[in-house]
Design a protein that fits this description.
The chain is mostly helical. The protein has a domain of about 290 residues: ABC transporter involved in vitamin B12 uptake, BtuC (Orthogonal Bundle). It is globular, with a radius of gyration of 24 Å.
Length: about 425
């Protein structure tokens, strides 16, 4: 018989596990600094590298040409990043699966050609033509997804075939003329270079900034109340307010700068709305969580009851739809559909934007805001080198170097996370 314990001895109460995020917030500012250092050591870099790179790029070009950070140049950057950025949004969805879509540039070119034929050659209502064009893009993406998910053909091969096939169909659609002019009306007028949110009024930019700040504040408070009710860790009100103030500073500074020139391009507004909607889908819906799950492990997702095939088909359909929308954005910049649409380095820039912005090539990590950050970097490089009258070859080399750096950072970060047990 064990006599080491007295009969009336009461065992100590079990120690309740405390979420480390609560401890961080209880320590105040010092706790956030400690958490930031821990995340860096663990390889969780987030958007930090691309933000630092963007600051460096802007500082270099501004030192070389004082016009770089002018309001007119900022308006140009914000306008021209939207078209390729739409392609990048679709690619983010595909990259989160750990796959690639090489057809987006050709689909965008085909979409501009189809829209031109529908609206110009056949006189179809421009809004109906737009809807039909986007649906065709979604259908093309679904075809790619079907061959990948159901037949088992690698996504690289399927979309490479699409890259060639849809480009050939675009050439056939445009025929001997090689180009079709598009009227400056309807959706193309909205997407045009001379179209701004609430034209001739500086209020437009400030209205958008205010709406964004209000949405941030209300969303943060709602999320706080929901998590508090569920008994899980939540952001304190002070943190919600701090984040809102930070966004307000950035939003109103951007509004002020753009208003000094022409205001906020409609194309940028639509691009931002698309980012917000897609961010909600990925972070707040079951479908979004399934995408991240597949990017982490296909087999584990299948055992968890996720319909892997349907998610894959849906993701490629989304990519095709955004490629079609991006093609219309690009057509709106010139009001023409040409044989050159979707050619050149468009595909590489769209992929580079998603990767440079922080979406992992290995799947399971990233967000749609990568498309915005990556396009800011790429468009800033292009615009800055244009101001300095640099050859296009220099643009390619610098963009390639930035892309390589982004992939290296992603690889090192992923390896660091594995070594620290956080992958």
């Amino acid at each position: 018989m064990d006599t080491s314990k007295r009969p009336d001895e009461v065992p100590p109460p079990a120690v309740e596990a405390i979420d480390p995020r609560l401890l961080v917030r209880e320590q105040g500012f010092k706790g956030y600094i400690t958490e930031f250092r821990r995340r860096l050591k663990g390889g969780e870099l987030g958007s930090l590298p691309v933000v630092v790179a963007l600051i460096i790029i802007w500082a270099i070009f501004q030192s070389k040409d004082s016009l770089f950070l002018s309001s007119t140049n900022m308006v140009n950057i914000s306008y021209f990043l939207s078209g390729t950025g739409m392609l990048a949004i679709g690619l983010v969805f595909v990259l989160l699966l750990g796959e690639i879509d090489l057809s987006v540039a050709s689909v965008s070119g085909l979409s501009s050609a189809l829209f031109a034929v529908f609206a110009t050659t056949h006189g179809m209502n421009v809004w109906l033509a737009l809807l039909l064009t986007v649906l065709i893009g979604v259908g093309i993406g679904a075809i790619h997804g079907f061959f990948f998910a159901k037949i088992g053909v690698p996504a690289f091969v399927v979309t490479l075939a699409g890259f060639l096939g849809w480009n050939g169909l675009m050439l056939w659609v445009l025929g001997d003329t090689g180009s079709l002019s598009l009227a400056d009306k309807g959706p193309l007028h909205i997407l045009g270079q001379r179209s701004y949110f609430l034209d001739q009024s500086i209020a437009g930019a400030y209205i958008l900034a205010t709406a964004g700040v209000a949405a941030m504040l209300l969303g943060g408070l709602y999320d706080q109340a929901r998590r508090r009710k569920a008994g899980v860790p939540y952001r304190p009100t002070s943190e919600v307010l701090l984040r809102t103030v930070a966004l307000a500073v950035v939003a109103y500074v951007v509004a002020f700068v753009l208003n000094k020139s022409s205001g906020v391009p409609n194309a940028l507004v639509i691009f931002l709305v698309a980012l917000i909607i897609c961010d909600f889908v990925l972070r707040r819906t079951t479908f979004g969580r399934k995408i991240f799950a597949l990017g982490g492990s296909v087999e584990a997702s299948r055992r968890a009851g996720i319909n892997v095939d349907m998610v894959r088909i849906a993701v490629f359909a989304i990519s095709g739809g955004f490629a079609a929308v991006g093609g219309l954005f690009l057509a709106g910049q010139t009001y023409t559909a040409t044989l050159q649409a979707g050619s050149g380095n468009l595909l590489m820039l769209a992929i580079a934007a998603a990767v440079i912005g922080g979406t992992s090539l290995f799947g399971g990590r990233g967000n749609v805001w990568s498309a915005l950050l990556g396009m800011l970097v790429i468009q800033s490089i292009q615009t800055g080198l244009d101001l300095l009258n640099m050859n296009q070859s220099i643009q390619y080399m610098i963009t390639g170097a930035v892309l390589l750096a982004a992939v290296v950072i992603d690889s090192v970060s992923r390896r660091t996370q594995k070594s620290s047990g956080r992958a």
